[in-house]
Amino acid sequence: LDLSNCSLHSVPPDLAEATTAVVLDLTENPLTTLPSGSFLGFIHLQSLVVPLTLECPGGSDAWQDVTVDRSSRLCHGQRNPCNSSVELVWPCPENSVCAPDGPGLIQCLCDNPFHGYKCLREGTFPMLLFGGILGTATVSLSLLLWGTQRRKAKAP
């Protein structure tokens, strides 16, 4: 994806749709910062070229090779932060596993059959019970309102 020399002052919001990009060029743009969530979900990104004034997203530890030339910085070979020897700042809770979510970013995915907040619930979501209670409450409330409001309707 070549976004070089596009007069970008900030990362375009539509960039979030390009998470399958492997190579991204942002050189020759008057960018001042790269917000931390700009590359969320970019797990396939292998080469990123940014203006010399900017650092690689996630820092140099998030990349295998950082090369600087006269006008740009090449960030190459995105590292998996889950496989590093450095202890994660926010370790994943029990019953979950770490997964990369972009340069220097991680996400915690629940192991099967766990789900919910901090992967503490085991089994599947009780869809039948939830749907039954919701349906019963909706029908009951509808009948109550129909019965109490029917007399206020004007007959033709």
From TrEMBL:
Gene3D superfamilies: Ribonuclease Inhibitor (3.80.10.10). The keyword Secreted does not apply. GO terms for biological process: positive regulation of osteoblast differentiation. Keywords: Membrane, Transmembrane, Transmembrane helix. The chain crosses the membrane at residues 125-146. The keyword Transport does not apply. Residues 108-119 form the EGF-like domain. This is ARAID factor. It comes from Tichodroma muraria. The gene is Atraid.
